[in-house]
Amino acid sequence: MTEKENHQLETTDLKYEEFYCCYLLRSLSPKYKQTSYIGSTNDPKRRLRQHNGEIASGAKKTSNKRPWEMILFVYGFPNHVAALQFEWSWQNPSITRRLQLKNREEFKENDDKLSTSLLALSKMLKDKFWSRWPLHLHILIPIESIILRQNKSLKINATNFFDTKNLSKNIRITNENIDFNNHKNYLNCLNIECNMSYHITCLAKKFTKSEALENSTFDNPYNELYEEILPINGKCPNCQIFLLWGDLILSMMIREKYVQNDLILDE
């Protein structure tokens, strides 16, 4: 995938997909023990079987370095296009424009491709461009120091979502009414005992303002700080439960999809 193709994907009509990940393989062949492979898929288990020749079709590039094991995958992308952009940058850390690096020489070709892939992932997940994405890291085997320091936007468990049967008609933060027929207009608190609903833009502003306030100091007061556009996390104004922004958006997308397809019905 070239930078030109990467740019073209940015203009593609996007849609929500429930799962798509970027994965890292390690060759178990003694001859290629430091060899790695980076790919993307919506079915990691099936894809690994393809790489190992258990299922026909695809994965020809890795056929001569079998067997392979999958050591981790990253998920939480809003769509497969975003995952493909992440995959390309992960495969090409020395030339991608997405990753801000002072020294790209450490990513030049060497015999230890596995360590290079892990180093690239570590820097990508802490880079400002991706650190605000709601990414989840799933590690399949014990590996020391994969990520030097876990980023606030990373999480490793399933996301909850709710149907629309018990939506609270109350609204906090703003006095405007919520249009509950427009699912992209509001977010629900993920605490089942709360069930509060908020305008998406109002809650986003509250989260980013809270983040700026937390980062403010005497030398860098709040009114001089840059307020981010995309939130990472925050607390529900009603029940004070900690919420990840990515989980809230995913909940909204799944709710919209299921309601539109009549998969969530009133009893």
Enumerate the spans where pLDDT stays under 50 for 5 or more consecutive residues.
1-14, 144-175
Task: Please state the CA-atom Rg, rounded to the nearest Å.
Answer: 21 Å
Structural class: alpha+beta
Strand content: 5-15%
Q: What would the average pLDDT be, to the nearest integer?
A: 75
Q: Tell me about the biggest sheet? A: 4 strands, antiparallel
Strand order of the largest sheet: 2-1-3-4
Termini Cα gap: 48 Å
Q: How many separate helices?
A: 7
- What is the number of E strands? 8
- Shape by Cα distribution: globular
Summed up, the domain count is 2
H-E order: HEEHEHHHEEEHEEH
What is the share of helical residues?
Answer: 25-40%
Brief descriptors of the model:
four-stranded antiparallel beta sheet; 8 strands; globular; Herpes Virus-1; two-stranded antiparallel sheet; alpha+beta; 14% strand; 267 residues; 2 domains
What's the structural blueprint in terms of helices and strands?
Blueprint: H1 3-10, E1 21-27, E2 36-41, H2 44-51, E3 68-75, H3 80-91, H4 113-126, H5 128-131, E4 136-139, E5 186-188, E6 197-199, H6 200-215, E7 233-235, E8 242-244, H7 245-260
Antiparallel strand pairs: 1-2, 1-3, 3-4, 5-6, 7-8
